[in-house]
From TrEMBL:
Region (Disordered): 373-405
SUPFAM superfamilies (UniProt xref): Nucleotidylyl transferase
GO biological process: coenzyme A biosynthetic process
Top-level taxonomic group: Eukaryota
Name the UniProt record assigns to this protein: Uncharacterized protein
Polar residues composition-biased segments: 386-398
InterPro entries: Rossmann-like_a/b/a_fold (IPR014729)
GO MF term set: dephospho-CoA kinase activity
Native species: Thermothielavioides terrestris (strain ATCC 38088 / NRRL 8126)
Lineage: Eukaryota, Fungi, Dikarya, Ascomycota, Pezizomycotina
Length: 405
Protein backbone atom coordinates (compact mmCIF):
# COMPACT_ATOMS: atom_id res chain seq x y z
CA UNK A 1 0.00 0.00 0.00
CA UNK A 2 1.49 3.32 -1.10
CA UNK A 3 1.64 6.42 1.06
CA UNK A 4 -1.06 8.15 -1.01
CA UNK A 5 -3.45 5.22 -0.44
CA UNK A 6 -3.29 5.50 3.34
CA UNK A 7 -6.01 7.22 5.37
CA UNK A 8 -5.28 10.32 7.42
CA UNK A 9 -6.11 10.69 11.12
CA UNK A 10 -7.88 13.47 12.99
CA UNK A 11 -8.05 12.98 16.77
CA UNK A 12 -10.76 15.08 18.39
CA UNK A 13 -10.64 15.56 22.16
CA UNK A 14 -13.63 15.00 24.43
CA UNK A 15 -17.07 16.04 23.13
CA UNK A 16 -19.03 18.83 24.81
CA UNK A 17 -21.33 18.18 27.74
CA UNK A 18 -24.28 18.38 27.40
CA UNK A 19 -24.15 17.07 23.85
CA UNK A 20 -26.22 19.37 21.62
CA UNK A 21 -25.81 20.05 17.92
CA UNK A 22 -24.78 23.72 18.40
CA UNK A 23 -22.22 22.69 21.03
CA UNK A 24 -20.88 19.93 18.78
CA UNK A 25 -20.53 22.35 15.87
CA UNK A 26 -18.67 24.85 18.04
CA UNK A 27 -16.31 22.15 19.30
CA UNK A 28 -15.50 20.28 16.08
CA UNK A 29 -16.53 22.21 12.98
CA UNK A 30 -13.29 24.29 12.71
CA UNK A 31 -11.10 21.19 12.97
CA UNK A 32 -13.17 19.16 10.51
CA UNK A 33 -13.28 22.04 8.05
CA UNK A 34 -9.52 22.57 8.06
CA UNK A 35 -8.72 18.84 7.83
CA UNK A 36 -11.17 18.23 4.97
CA UNK A 37 -10.00 21.37 3.12
CA UNK A 38 -6.39 20.19 3.29
CA UNK A 39 -7.29 16.69 2.12
CA UNK A 40 -9.30 18.08 -0.77
CA UNK A 41 -6.36 20.22 -1.90
CA UNK A 42 -3.85 17.38 -1.53
CA UNK A 43 -6.03 14.75 -3.19
CA UNK A 44 -6.50 12.71 0.01
CA UNK A 45 -9.45 10.36 -0.21
CA UNK A 46 -9.84 8.84 3.27
CA UNK A 47 -10.05 10.27 6.79
CA UNK A 48 -10.50 8.52 10.13
CA UNK A 49 -11.96 10.84 12.77
CA UNK A 50 -11.17 9.47 16.21
CA UNK A 51 -13.46 10.97 18.86
CA UNK A 52 -11.83 10.43 22.25
CA UNK A 53 -14.07 10.21 25.30
CA UNK A 54 -14.65 8.02 28.39
CA UNK A 55 -17.58 6.26 26.76
CA UNK A 56 -17.23 2.79 28.29
CA UNK A 57 -18.03 1.95 31.89
CA UNK A 58 -17.02 -0.93 34.13
CA UNK A 59 -14.04 -1.88 36.25
CA UNK A 60 -12.99 -5.00 34.36
CA UNK A 61 -11.91 -5.26 30.72
CA UNK A 62 -14.13 -8.28 30.05
CA UNK A 63 -17.32 -6.56 31.22
CA UNK A 64 -17.27 -3.08 29.74
CA UNK A 65 -20.64 -1.51 28.96
CA UNK A 66 -21.91 1.63 27.25
CA UNK A 67 -25.03 3.71 26.88
CA UNK A 68 -26.20 3.05 23.33
CA UNK A 69 -28.45 6.15 23.10
CA UNK A 70 -25.53 8.34 24.17
CA UNK A 71 -23.11 6.71 21.73
CA UNK A 72 -25.42 6.76 18.72
CA UNK A 73 -26.35 10.40 19.41
CA UNK A 74 -22.66 11.34 19.33
CA UNK A 75 -22.17 9.39 16.09
CA UNK A 76 -25.26 10.98 14.51
CA UNK A 77 -24.04 14.43 15.45
CA UNK A 78 -20.58 13.74 14.05
CA UNK A 79 -21.80 12.34 10.73
CA UNK A 80 -24.30 15.20 10.39
CA UNK A 81 -21.51 17.71 10.95
CA UNK A 82 -19.22 15.92 8.49
CA UNK A 83 -22.02 15.95 5.89
CA UNK A 84 -22.56 19.67 6.44
CA UNK A 85 -18.87 20.55 6.12
CA UNK A 86 -18.45 18.38 3.02
CA UNK A 87 -21.50 20.01 1.43
CA UNK A 88 -20.10 23.49 2.11
CA UNK A 89 -16.71 22.49 0.65
CA UNK A 90 -18.22 20.61 -2.33
CA UNK A 91 -16.66 17.34 -1.18
CA UNK A 92 -18.35 14.04 -1.97
CA UNK A 93 -19.00 11.78 1.01
CA UNK A 94 -19.60 8.35 -0.51
CA UNK A 95 -17.12 5.48 -0.36
CA UNK A 96 -14.91 5.23 -3.45
CA UNK A 97 -16.40 8.49 -4.70
CA UNK A 98 -13.37 9.31 -6.80
CA UNK A 99 -11.71 12.73 -7.18
CA UNK A 100 -13.27 15.38 -4.99
CA UNK A 101 -14.57 12.90 -2.40
CA UNK A 102 -13.28 12.09 1.09
CA UNK A 103 -14.44 8.81 2.62
CA UNK A 104 -14.69 9.73 6.32
CA UNK A 105 -15.13 7.20 9.14
CA UNK A 106 -15.87 8.09 12.77
CA UNK A 107 -14.22 5.85 15.38
CA UNK A 108 -15.09 6.17 19.07
CA UNK A 109 -12.02 5.74 21.29
CA UNK A 110 -12.46 5.05 24.99
CA UNK A 111 -10.05 7.20 27.02
CA UNK A 112 -10.18 9.24 30.20
CA UNK A 113 -8.33 12.55 30.09
CA UNK A 114 -6.93 11.87 33.57
CA UNK A 115 -5.46 8.50 32.62
CA UNK A 116 -1.66 8.40 32.72
CA UNK A 117 0.45 5.59 31.32
CA UNK A 118 3.59 4.60 33.28
CA UNK A 119 6.98 5.16 31.56
CA UNK A 120 7.49 1.42 31.00
CA UNK A 121 3.97 0.86 29.62
CA UNK A 122 3.98 -1.25 26.45
CA UNK A 123 0.71 -0.83 24.52
CA UNK A 124 -0.90 -3.89 23.00
CA UNK A 125 -4.19 -4.91 21.47
CA UNK A 126 -6.64 -5.56 24.30
CA UNK A 127 -10.23 -6.30 23.37
CA UNK A 128 -13.28 -6.13 25.59
CA UNK A 129 -16.83 -7.34 25.04
CA UNK A 130 -17.67 -4.30 22.88
CA UNK A 131 -16.34 -3.13 19.51
CA UNK A 132 -15.01 0.13 21.00
CA UNK A 133 -11.26 0.15 21.67
CA UNK A 134 -9.18 2.10 24.15
CA UNK A 135 -6.41 4.52 23.20
CA UNK A 136 -3.58 2.00 23.60
CA UNK A 137 -5.34 -0.55 21.38
CA UNK A 138 -6.14 2.13 18.81
CA UNK A 139 -2.47 3.13 18.66
CA UNK A 140 -1.46 -0.53 18.35
CA UNK A 141 -3.83 -1.48 15.52
CA UNK A 142 -4.62 1.68 13.53
CA UNK A 143 -1.57 2.66 11.47
CA UNK A 144 0.24 3.77 9.33
CA UNK A 145 -1.22 7.16 8.37
CA UNK A 146 -0.78 9.52 5.46
CA UNK A 147 -1.15 12.61 7.68
CA UNK A 148 -2.03 13.14 11.33
CA UNK A 149 -3.99 16.30 12.10
CA UNK A 150 -3.29 17.84 15.51
CA UNK A 151 -5.88 20.13 17.09
CA UNK A 152 -4.39 23.40 18.31
CA UNK A 153 -5.66 23.47 21.91
CA UNK A 154 -4.41 22.39 25.33
CA UNK A 155 -6.46 19.20 25.26
CA UNK A 156 -5.51 18.64 21.63
CA UNK A 157 -1.79 18.83 22.42
CA UNK A 158 -2.20 16.51 25.41
CA UNK A 159 -4.13 13.98 23.38
CA UNK A 160 -1.68 14.16 20.47
CA UNK A 161 1.29 13.61 22.79
CA UNK A 162 -0.37 10.61 24.46
CA UNK A 163 -1.21 9.04 21.12
CA UNK A 164 2.32 9.50 19.70
CA UNK A 165 3.85 7.99 22.84
CA UNK A 166 1.61 4.94 22.56
CA UNK A 167 2.18 4.63 18.80
CA UNK A 168 5.98 4.94 19.06
CA UNK A 169 7.71 2.51 16.71
CA UNK A 170 4.58 1.81 14.67
CA UNK A 171 5.32 4.38 11.97
CA UNK A 172 8.16 6.72 11.13
CA UNK A 173 6.55 10.13 10.69
CA UNK A 174 8.04 13.06 8.84
CA UNK A 175 7.39 16.52 10.19
CA UNK A 176 5.34 17.31 7.08
CA UNK A 177 2.91 14.51 8.01
CA UNK A 178 2.02 16.19 11.33
CA UNK A 179 -0.42 18.95 10.48
CA UNK A 180 -1.51 21.54 13.04
CA UNK A 181 -5.11 22.74 12.63
CA UNK A 182 -7.46 25.03 14.54
CA UNK A 183 -9.60 23.73 17.35
CA UNK A 184 -13.07 24.84 18.41
CA UNK A 185 -14.65 25.81 21.69
CA UNK A 186 -15.72 22.91 23.89
CA UNK A 187 -18.01 23.57 26.84
CA UNK A 188 -18.50 21.26 29.80
CA UNK A 189 -21.36 22.33 32.05
CA UNK A 190 -21.67 20.59 35.40
CA UNK A 191 -24.92 18.65 35.57
CA UNK A 192 -27.04 18.39 38.71
CA UNK A 193 -27.45 14.65 38.13
CA UNK A 194 -23.95 13.10 38.04
CA UNK A 195 -25.17 9.48 37.86
CA UNK A 196 -24.02 7.29 35.01
CA UNK A 197 -26.42 6.90 32.07
CA UNK A 198 -28.37 3.68 31.86
CA UNK A 199 -26.17 1.00 30.37
CA UNK A 200 -27.45 -0.84 27.31
CA UNK A 201 -27.46 -4.65 27.02
CA UNK A 202 -25.50 -6.21 24.18
CA UNK A 203 -26.61 -9.16 22.05
CA UNK A 204 -25.08 -12.26 20.42
CA UNK A 205 -26.98 -11.69 17.14
CA UNK A 206 -27.82 -8.23 15.77
CA UNK A 207 -29.57 -7.49 12.48
CA UNK A 208 -30.34 -4.50 10.27
CA UNK A 209 -31.19 -3.90 6.63
CA UNK A 210 -30.93 -1.39 3.82
CA UNK A 211 -29.92 -0.82 0.21
CA UNK A 212 -26.45 0.62 1.03
CA UNK A 213 -26.14 2.14 -2.41
CA UNK A 214 -23.13 4.49 -2.64
CA UNK A 215 -22.21 4.00 1.01
CA UNK A 216 -22.55 7.42 2.68
CA UNK A 217 -22.63 8.93 6.22
CA UNK A 218 -26.22 7.81 6.88
CA UNK A 219 -25.23 4.22 6.15
CA UNK A 220 -22.09 4.55 8.28
CA UNK A 221 -24.15 5.75 11.24
CA UNK A 222 -26.57 2.84 10.92
CA UNK A 223 -23.83 0.22 10.53
CA UNK A 224 -21.75 1.58 13.42
CA UNK A 225 -24.77 1.92 15.72
CA UNK A 226 -25.71 -1.70 15.05
CA UNK A 227 -22.16 -2.93 15.69
CA UNK A 228 -22.18 -1.19 19.09
CA UNK A 229 -24.89 -3.63 20.22
CA UNK A 230 -22.76 -6.72 19.54
CA UNK A 231 -21.81 -8.86 22.54
CA UNK A 232 -18.26 -9.79 21.59
CA UNK A 233 -17.05 -12.97 23.37
CA UNK A 234 -13.55 -13.05 24.93
CA UNK A 235 -10.76 -14.33 22.73
CA UNK A 236 -9.58 -17.86 23.32
CA UNK A 237 -12.91 -19.14 24.59
CA UNK A 238 -14.98 -21.81 22.85
CA UNK A 239 -17.98 -19.51 22.68
CA UNK A 240 -19.69 -18.94 19.36
CA UNK A 241 -18.82 -15.68 17.62
CA UNK A 242 -21.33 -12.89 17.84
CA UNK A 243 -23.12 -12.42 14.52
CA UNK A 244 -23.90 -9.21 12.69
CA UNK A 245 -26.47 -9.97 9.98
CA UNK A 246 -26.95 -7.23 7.41
CA UNK A 247 -29.76 -7.60 4.93
CA UNK A 248 -28.93 -5.82 1.67
CA UNK A 249 -31.74 -5.29 -0.82
CA UNK A 250 -31.39 -7.43 -3.93
CA UNK A 251 -31.10 -5.83 -7.36
CA UNK A 252 -34.56 -7.01 -8.45
CA UNK A 253 -36.28 -5.01 -5.68
CA UNK A 254 -34.60 -1.78 -6.79
CA UNK A 255 -35.69 -1.67 -10.43
CA UNK A 256 -38.33 1.00 -9.74
CA UNK A 257 -36.06 3.30 -7.71
CA UNK A 258 -35.28 6.76 -9.05
CA UNK A 259 -32.23 6.69 -11.35
CA UNK A 260 -32.25 2.89 -11.06
CA UNK A 261 -29.71 2.57 -13.87
CA UNK A 262 -27.09 4.11 -11.56
CA UNK A 263 -27.69 1.74 -8.63
CA UNK A 264 -24.59 -0.25 -7.75
CA UNK A 265 -24.78 -4.05 -8.13
CA UNK A 266 -25.50 -6.05 -4.97
CA UNK A 267 -21.96 -7.42 -4.86
CA UNK A 268 -20.46 -3.91 -4.89
CA UNK A 269 -22.81 -2.71 -2.17
CA UNK A 270 -22.12 -5.76 0.01
CA UNK A 271 -18.35 -5.43 -0.39
CA UNK A 272 -18.48 -1.76 0.57
CA UNK A 273 -20.40 -2.66 3.73
CA UNK A 274 -17.70 -5.18 4.59
CA UNK A 275 -14.89 -2.73 3.77
CA UNK A 276 -16.44 -0.08 6.00
CA UNK A 277 -17.01 -2.44 8.94
CA UNK A 278 -13.43 -3.69 8.65
CA UNK A 279 -12.27 -0.23 9.75
CA UNK A 280 -14.23 -0.69 13.00
CA UNK A 281 -13.77 -4.39 13.63
CA UNK A 282 -10.39 -5.48 12.27
CA UNK A 283 -7.54 -5.37 14.80
CA UNK A 284 -4.03 -6.42 13.75
CA UNK A 285 -0.65 -5.75 15.32
CA UNK A 286 0.54 -5.03 11.76
CA UNK A 287 -2.04 -2.32 11.27
CA UNK A 288 -2.85 -2.01 7.59
CA UNK A 289 0.43 -3.45 6.34
CA UNK A 290 -1.44 -6.59 5.29
CA UNK A 291 -4.10 -4.51 3.54
CA UNK A 292 -7.24 -2.80 4.78
CA UNK A 293 -9.83 -5.02 3.16
CA UNK A 294 -11.07 -8.27 4.73
CA UNK A 295 -11.18 -11.73 3.24
CA UNK A 296 -14.76 -12.34 2.16
CA UNK A 297 -16.25 -15.81 1.72
CA UNK A 298 -19.06 -16.06 -0.81
CA UNK A 299 -21.62 -18.78 -0.20
CA UNK A 300 -25.09 -19.19 -1.72
CA UNK A 301 -24.86 -15.65 -3.08
CA UNK A 302 -24.20 -14.12 0.36
CA UNK A 303 -20.97 -12.72 1.84
CA UNK A 304 -19.36 -13.63 5.18
CA UNK A 305 -16.23 -12.32 6.92
CA UNK A 306 -14.80 -12.78 10.41
CA UNK A 307 -12.89 -10.36 12.61
CA UNK A 308 -10.93 -10.26 15.88
CA UNK A 309 -9.76 -13.88 15.93
CA UNK A 310 -13.16 -15.08 14.72
CA UNK A 311 -15.05 -13.60 17.66
CA UNK A 312 -17.16 -11.47 15.29
CA UNK A 313 -18.88 -12.80 12.18
CA UNK A 314 -20.45 -10.41 9.67
CA UNK A 315 -22.96 -11.76 7.15
CA UNK A 316 -24.25 -9.73 4.21
CA UNK A 317 -27.47 -11.41 3.14
CA UNK A 318 -29.32 -10.79 -0.12
CA UNK A 319 -32.96 -9.90 0.63
CA UNK A 320 -35.91 -9.96 -1.73
CA UNK A 321 -38.71 -8.80 0.60
CA UNK A 322 -39.35 -6.31 3.39
CA UNK A 323 -38.44 -8.74 6.21
CA UNK A 324 -35.28 -10.50 5.09
CA UNK A 325 -33.51 -12.65 7.68
CA UNK A 326 -35.59 -11.32 10.62
CA UNK A 327 -38.30 -13.90 9.86
CA UNK A 328 -35.99 -16.70 8.70
CA UNK A 329 -33.31 -16.62 11.43
CA UNK A 330 -34.95 -17.27 14.80
CA UNK A 331 -31.85 -16.60 16.93
CA UNK A 332 -31.64 -12.90 16.06
CA UNK A 333 -31.85 -10.85 19.27
CA UNK A 334 -31.90 -7.18 18.22
CA UNK A 335 -32.93 -5.12 15.20
CA UNK A 336 -31.60 -1.64 14.36
CA UNK A 337 -33.83 0.71 12.36
CA UNK A 338 -33.75 4.33 11.24
CA UNK A 339 -36.57 6.79 11.87
CA UNK A 340 -37.98 6.38 8.36
CA UNK A 341 -38.16 2.57 8.83
CA UNK A 342 -39.38 2.54 12.44
CA UNK A 343 -42.68 0.89 11.43
CA UNK A 344 -40.70 -2.03 10.06
CA UNK A 345 -39.65 -3.11 13.56
CA UNK A 346 -43.24 -3.55 14.67
CA UNK A 347 -44.11 -5.45 11.48
CA UNK A 348 -41.13 -7.77 11.99
CA UNK A 349 -42.16 -8.60 15.55
CA UNK A 350 -45.73 -9.29 14.44
CA UNK A 351 -44.43 -11.78 11.85
CA UNK A 352 -42.15 -13.40 14.44
CA UNK A 353 -45.07 -13.69 16.87
CA UNK A 354 -47.03 -15.58 14.20
CA UNK A 355 -44.17 -18.11 14.15
CA UNK A 356 -44.10 -18.36 17.94
CA UNK A 357 -40.67 -16.67 18.09
CA UNK A 358 -39.57 -14.13 20.68
CA UNK A 359 -39.79 -10.46 19.79
CA UNK A 360 -36.65 -8.57 18.80
CA UNK A 361 -35.32 -5.66 20.83
CA UNK A 362 -35.67 -2.70 18.44
CA UNK A 363 -33.22 0.22 18.47
CA UNK A 364 -33.76 3.40 16.47
CA UNK A 365 -30.93 5.61 15.22
CA UNK A 366 -31.24 9.33 14.62
CA UNK A 367 -31.73 10.87 11.20
CA UNK A 368 -28.77 12.78 9.82
CA UNK A 369 -29.41 16.50 9.51
CA UNK A 370 -26.92 18.18 7.19
CA UNK A 371 -28.35 21.65 7.73
CA UNK A 372 -26.68 24.36 9.77
CA UNK A 373 -27.24 23.69 13.45
CA UNK A 374 -30.35 25.49 14.75
CA UNK A 375 -30.41 27.35 18.03
CA UNK A 376 -32.42 24.49 19.50
CA UNK A 377 -32.06 20.83 18.50
CA UNK A 378 -34.97 19.60 16.40
CA UNK A 379 -35.98 16.29 14.88
CA UNK A 380 -36.60 16.17 11.17
CA UNK A 381 -37.74 13.52 8.73
CA UNK A 382 -37.27 15.73 5.69
CA UNK A 383 -35.30 13.62 3.23
CA UNK A 384 -33.98 16.78 1.56
CA UNK A 385 -31.98 17.50 4.70
CA UNK A 386 -30.14 14.18 4.55
CA UNK A 387 -27.36 12.76 2.48
CA UNK A 388 -29.09 10.05 0.42
CA UNK A 389 -28.27 7.46 -2.20
CA UNK A 390 -30.98 8.93 -4.43
CA UNK A 391 -29.30 12.34 -4.33
CA UNK A 392 -25.93 10.77 -5.19
CA UNK A 393 -27.45 8.88 -8.13
CA UNK A 394 -29.13 12.09 -9.31
CA UNK A 395 -25.80 13.90 -9.23
CA UNK A 396 -24.20 11.16 -11.29
CA UNK A 397 -27.03 11.25 -13.81
CA UNK A 398 -26.72 15.03 -14.16
CA UNK A 399 -22.94 14.80 -14.54
CA UNK A 400 -23.36 12.27 -17.33
CA UNK A 401 -25.88 14.48 -19.13
CA UNK A 402 -23.60 17.51 -18.82
CA UNK A 403 -20.74 15.48 -20.24
CA UNK A 404 -22.82 14.61 -23.31
CA UNK A 405 -23.78 18.25 -23.96
Amino acid sequence: MGQDDLPSLLLLPFPPNPLTRPALDAAYKPSLTHALEKLKRSGGTRLVVGVVCPILHGQFLESKTLSWPEAQALLAGMYSLISLVCDQLSIGTEMDGGPGSVDTTVVLIDHDRNKRFPPNFRPAIETNNTIIVDMATFASAYFPWNSIFQVRSELGFQLHRTYLELAEGKQTLRQSQLVLIDGGLTLHIAQADQSLPTQTPTYPVVCLGGTFDYLHPGHKLLLTAGALLLQVPPRGEAAKPCRYIIGITGDEMLRNKKYAEYIQPWETRARNVMFFLAQLLRLSSRGWKDGTRPQIEEKDGNFTATFRDRTIEVQCVRIQDAFGPTITVEEIDALVVSKETRSGGQAVNEKRAERGWRALAVYEVDVLDAKEAPDEPVETEDFASKISSTAIRQQRAQSKMETKV
